[in-house]
Amino acid sequence: MIIRLLPLSFVLLAIALLGTGCSLHDPARTAASGAAQAVPAHAERGPAERSAPALSRDASRALRPPVMKPEDAPDIWTRARLGFAMTEALDHPRVAVYIDHYRRNPNIITVSSARAKPFAYFILTEIERRGLPGELLLLPIVESGYAAEATSRGLAAGIWQFIPSTGEHFGLIQDDWYDGRRDVYQSTHAALDYLESLHERFGDWYLALAAYNFGQGNVARAMAANAAAGRPTDYWSLDLSSEAMSYVPRLLALRALIEDPARHGITVPKLANRPYLEPVQLGRQADLEYVAELARIEAREVLQLNPGYRRAITHPHAAQHLLLPTPAARRLQVALHQHGPDHPLVRYTEYQVRPGDNLGRIAQRHGVTVAELRGANNLRGDLIRVGQRLRVPVSGTVATAGAGPVRTAARAERHTVQAGDSLWTISRRYGVNVAGIRERNGLAADALLQPGQVLEIPRGQAEATLRRVEYQIRPGDSLGAISRRFQVDITDVQRWNALNGDGIRAGEMLTLYVAAGRASDG
Questions:
Q1: Cα–Cα distance list, 149 to 95, 352, 458 (Å)
Q2: Are 357 and 216 in contact, with CB atoms under 8 Å apart?
């Protein structure tokens, strides 16, 4: 009787609301009850009935927690976590050892993050584009601490630590002008190509990583030996080198710390989730100092972001690209467009060959190397003639023409500690004393150096005690004999002179940076 007291329109509205209440508040139950009703397959449904299942699916989807998109992640490490895919043996005892190691040495992650800052967005984007595990962003920490200048005893170089032959196999140019293994842009593509091919071969990421470190032939033989002995052939069961046995555990330990820093009591530096660098294709050889002027950026930063170039000038024929901070890249592109494609980006002086000249003397006079003179003038050998005009790059190994004290570029300011380094070996390399390094870096007398640690080398002291020496190679000389005579490392002699191996020829000139007391070769 109450219904009679209510307006008819109100009653109809209440009935409609009661009839739709389940689909609004409990779509799952509504879908279940609808499925329980026997509706013939051939029965014609009205518009409301046909739309109900679709509405239920939409409502169910809306109730799920949203999945964060990579571009929406607040920082790079959060974004990397979205792609973490290595889930097996995370609690293995070999992993726990390295979790403790990194917790006790948090500077490894701090320093590596600082080095990774310009490149992490590009590297992670390429990892995601290929559908690879996000943990691979951490692999350069294991390999090199993200130090592009890192070189191992086995001559592996760059953040991905390519040995010369593997780098060459994956298309990384290595010559007097450029080392693609140190070019973060090119070596990242090569490293991911290599890792993909190893995963395709072994079908397992842990085995692929072991092969990246230890060699695929070695891993395959270890697997075959286990199979022949009736033992498992997974990564954790193989008998590998000590380095390869710790390689995956170190990566998984970093994964654990990056995934939950608070749980492990560490702080991970934030890296912005936005592009830092932009590649610029120059299309011709370029003086990096001039490019820096056009882009309105410090030349030192251009060199730091493009460590593949051995000199302050790009390759004459091959690698002619640069990675620059996005604003600087756009300024450079505008300047290149305004100047036009024929505008030279290398600045030269012209020199007319005089009687008694040779390439070594001309190079010494102008503060460049013989290799730079050859490259600038397309010379295949050392033959020149009186009256010939040579182009001499203003860029390159910058030094005074005299024998006064010089500084050995950026490496005389900062040094990244490698395995086996000591304060004594570092002091010998830079021609400074141990006390000066300790004082500059606040190191106690019993301080232990950690791989990846960055030391500042006292600039004033290095400038005062190092001299540039031009040494003419004599018959019977070898790099080993020359390095012993001047008390310098062979690897430094190779780097100073852009030498790929040990081959030298009598009559050629070598540039050496030696302690003042060793400046005479007598």
A1: 28, 37, 19
A2: no
List, in sequence order, every residue forming a beta bridge with 351; answer none if it has no partner: 390
Measured at the alpha carbon of residue 174, what is the angle toward residues 308 and 452, in degrees to the nearest 5?
45
Catalytic residue among 135, 143, 289, 372: 143
Calpha distance 454→450 (Å, rounded):
9
Specify the long-range contacts of residues 193-200, CB closer than 8 Å, at least 24 apart: 194/166, 194/170, 195/132, 195/136, 196/130, 196/132
3-state secondary structure at position 512 = strand
Bridge partners, residue 281, by sequence? 321
* Helices 184-202, 120-129: inter-axial angle, 10-degree rounding: 30
Over 60: is that where the pLDDT of 459 sits? no
- Cβ atoms < 10 Å from Cβ of 360: 21
Distance (Å, rounded) from C-alpha 522 to C-alpha 518? Answer: 9
Q: What pLDDT is recorded for position 46?
A: 43
Tell me the C-alpha distance between 507 and 520, whole Å. Answer: 18
User: Cα–Cα distance between 123 and 192 in angstroms, integer?
Assistant: 10
Is 88 in the active site?
A: no
Among 144, 414, 115, residue whose Cα is nearest residue 271: 115
- Please identify which residue in the block is written with the tokens 């584009």: 129
The CA distance from 506 to 522, in Å, is 17
Amino acid (one-letter) located at 29:
R
β-pair type (454-456, 414-416): antiparallel
Residue 149 and residue 181: Cα distance in Å, rounded?
A: 10
Count of alpha carbons within 13 angstroms of residue 307, beta-carbon side = 21
Is residue 311 within a helix (H) or strand (E), and if so which, with residue range? none
Give the span between the Cα atoms of 387 and 353, in whole angstroms: 5
Helix (H, G, I), strand (E, B) or coil at 42: coil
Phi, psi of 125 (to 5 degrees): -60, -40
SS3 letters across 220-265 = HHHHHHHHHCCCCCCHHHCCCCHHHHHHHHHHHHHHHHHHCCCCCC
What pLDDT is attached to residue 86?
96
Residue closest to 315 by CA, chosen among 103, 483, 173: 173
Residue from 99, 81, 104 nearest 89 by CA: 99
The verdict on pTM exceeding 0.70 is no
Helix (H, G, I), strand (E, B) or coil at 405: strand
Summarised one tens digit per residue, pLDDT across range 276-315 is: 999 999 988 898 889 999 999 998 899 999 999 988 788 8
- The whole-angstrom separation of Cα 9 and Cα 28 is 31
Given the structure tokens 């092969």, which residue do they identify? Answer: 211
